[in-house]
Amino acid sequence: MLSLVQPQLTALDIWALGITIVIGGQYFSWNAGLVAGFYSYFGALLLMSTAYITMVLCLAEASSMLPFAGGAYGLSRCSLGFYLGFMIGCCEALEYLAYVASSVLMMGQMLVIISPSLKGYEPIIWLCVYALAIAVHLHGGATFWFANRVLAAVSLAVSLVYILGGLFLIDGDINATSPLLYAFSFSEVLGALPLTAWMFVGIESLNMASDEVLEPKTVIPRGQIACVVTLAATGLATYLVSAFVPPGLDSLAVAVVPLNEGFRRLFGLSEATACLLSLPATYATISGFIFLTGCSLSYMVCLAAYFVPSVNTHLFSVCMLSSFCAYSAQCYGYIYLRRRFHHLERTFTSPLGVPGAVFAFCVWQLNILSILGFQTSPGVAFGAFAVLWCLLTIYYYAYAKHRQTISDDERKILFVAHVANYNASRATQIKSGNTSKLKKSGHSSRRLLGRGGAVKYQIKASNQTNTLTTICTDH
C-alpha cells in the first residue's frame, strides 16, 4: 500500500463498506426472477431478506465475541475442523471471485449499451474496469476509506432518487393484464429464490474488516446491522417501485438494466444515458468485493465467459452454491459459539439467538436445493462445483494439511476455541482408550497452537487465563 496513514474507522465506515459491496446487486439481474410471478417472487424476496437479517444478527454477535478477520474460514476451522474450514474458506473465495466476474461482465454490457462501438472490445473493457477498481486499493489507507464513503454515498443517493422519483411514476393499472402479476408455480418460485440474493450477497463479509478497526467488538456489529437494515429497505423499495413503473412487469422481467425505464421517464433520458446512472453502484460493488479478494483469477473467469459464453450462464449458480455453503457454515459456527462459549463476554447479543440461526440455515439449504434441482441445466453447476471440491480436497490432503498453521491473529482471537476443541478431543480419546490417536492429535495441535499452547495450556496473555482455565476445567 502506498498510503501509510490509517484512519480511525467508525461504524459509519463499516456501513459504507457494506453498501459499496452489496448495493450494485440491486441495480441488475435480480429482475430475472419475475418470471415466477410478482407476488410469488416478492414472497421469496421477503424470505431471503429475513434470512440475511437473521444471519447478520448472528454474525454481529460472533464478531462482538471473537472479532476475527478471517471470515467464514476462521470460524469454520473452530466449529467444523481444519479440513472443512479450509473448504469453506475456498467456497467463500470462490463466491467472491465469481461475483466480481459477474459484476464486471454486467458493467461491460452496460458500457456497450452506452457506446455500441465498444462491442467486440469487452476483454479490454474488463481489464480497464479491474485496473480502475484496484487503483484505490493500491493507494490504501485514508484514501481508500474516503473513496469508499464517496462511492457508498453516490450509489445510495442514486438509488434513493430512483425510489422516491419512481413513486410519482407508479401506475397501479399497468400490470392489470400481465400474466406475471398473479403467476404462481412452486418450481418456478423455488428456482427463482437464489436470484433474490443479488440484493444482499456480500453483506456477510464485513467482519473481514475487523483487523482494520481499533474496537472491532463494538464497531463491526453496529456497522453490520445498520448496513443490512439499509439494504433490506432499499431492496424491497426498489422491487416494489420497479414493478409498477411503466411499461410494467413484462418488460422489467427481461430488461438488462432494470432501473433504466424509471430513470428514462424521470429525466427524459435515452436508454444509453440512463445506463450511466447505474454505473457508480456497479463499479462500487466491483471495488468493494476486491477489498475481500484479488482480481487476476476473476479476470480469467471473464475471459472464459467471453470465449465460452455458456460459462456466463452458470457462473451465478456456482457463485451462489459456494456462498450458501459458506453461509450454512457460518450459521452452524454461530450455534457452536453460542452453546460452547456462552460465558464469553460480548457487546451484542442477537435477539433471535439459536432459533434465528437455525431458520437462516434452513433457508440456505432450501437455496442449495434450488440450485441443484430447479435451475436450467442444474447438473452443470453442480458438476463444476463438485470437480472444484474434489480438486481442493486432493490439494488439502496432499499439500496444505501438512503445512497449515494458525496465524498470529487467529491464535490471539480464536485460541480459546481451538484449545477447547483440543480438550474435548483429548477427553473423548482418553475415555475410548485410543492413546495412539491422542498422541497424533496432540502433536498436530502443538504444531498448530504453538509451543505449550495445546499440552500445558500455559497462556501468557493474562486476559485469557481465567477463560481458558474455565474451559479446561469443563472438559
UniProtKB/TrEMBL annotation:
Its main location: membrane. Pfam families: AA_permease_2 (PF13520). One of its GO terms (cellular component) is plasma membrane. It is found in: Cell membrane. GO terms for molecular function: transmembrane transporter activity. It is a multi-pass membrane protein. InterPro entries: AA/rel_permease1 (IPR002293), APC_superfamily (IPR050367). The chain crosses the membrane at residues 12-30, 36-59, 121-138, 150-170, 182-203, 224-245, 289-308, 314-337, 349-374, 380-398. It comes from Saprolegnia parasitica (strain CBS 223.65). The keyword Cell membrane applies. Keywords: Cell membrane, Membrane, Transmembrane, Transmembrane helix. This is Amino acid permease/ SLC12A domain-containing protein.
